[in-house]
Amino acid sequence: MARLWGVWIHVRRVAKKAALVAASAGEEDSSMLLAAAWLHDIGYSPEVMETGLHALDGGRWLRRRGFHDRVASLVAFHSCAIYEAEERGWRICCAQSSSTRHRPSGTPCGTPT
Ligand SMILES: [Fe+2]
Fold first, then answer.
1. Which one-letter DSSP state was computed for residue 95?
2. pLDDT at position 98 over 50
3. Span from the CA of 39 to the centroid of ligand 1 (angstroms)
4. How far is CA 81 from the centre of its chain?
């Protein structure tokens, strides 16, 4: 529990920094950034954890719950998660179906390699 408290303190600091950046972004970008900042470490939650790679677990969890692909992808790929995933034998792949102007959006499919 103490570890999650530390994560919560960290998340609040990240969200505060993200708000500074979001102030100079457009409305859609800023809302995606703020959502991802608040949610980026949700993969540390025992209810969310699957693979043990918190970024991937968080991204997958958000995607299954219908969060926007960009938010799920920002969470899945944060902190260079793609390299940690590779080391652990997981693959974080990119979406093929997104028609947003922000393509390519990564989709945290999380398949073992
Ligand atoms: Fe973090």
1. -
2. no
3. 9
4. 9
